[in-house]
Input
Amino acid sequence: MKKLHVFQHVPFETSGIIAQWAEKRGYAIASTQFFNGQFPETGGADWLVIMGGPMGVYDEAQYPWLMEEKKAIQQAIADGKVVLGICLGAQLIAETLGATVRNNMYREIGWFPVFLNSGVLDLDIAQVLPPQWEALHWHGDTFDIPEGARLLASSEACRNQAFIYSDRVVGLQFHLEMERSHAEALVRHCADELDNDGYVQSGQEILAAEAPFDQSRALMERILAYLDGLAVRCPAIHQKY
Output
């Protein structure tokens, strides 16, 4: 049985759609909940999924477990595991791989388009990504692209939105894993950040009836299938999405 392990930083940012997808495929799922004082241990998992959170990768004085988490991520990559990072998780992977994580020029919160980097059409993962998609963002920091990694996608407010390293390590600055209920929890817990400044939408805009949660689910599942080796290798890269 394949095993998937989740690093979770706060109660309201769960693995959401990722766990649902894995359960349907018979994965055994375990987690380290840092907010409950648990120590990072992947337990021989095949996959490591690292979730988001309001802290930064540099907040080790306030969250000392970050130091141990970074070591565990580094070991998972060295051990050849599939590693997927979401938002803070992507930043942690980037730093672990030697890249700098810093403040982005803009805070980006809400639904904004993401564009596939035309320079990665030679990669297999590009065949499961559309040329453009709407994604839910909630971040003020950004990462540099690690040495040896490839930039997958960008947005107007943030150039470095996604990267892939060694075909099996993926960092996504945006959230595809959230259903409406998960976004509602994020809006509720982080409402103080919704000041409508620049690239910051209101809670009402984020949770609007037409918000593309279904499209996010579909794209998240395509990425997961790619990482699981199940993605259909289609020659029509720019297929309608």
Summary: Residues 213-227 form the longest helix (15 residues). Residues 230-241 have pLDDT under 50 and may be disordered. Residues 3-227 form a domain with the Rossmann fold fold (CATH 3.40.50.880). The beta strands are 3-8, 28-33, 47-50, 82-86, 101-116, 132-143, 149-155, 162-165, 169-172, 199-200.
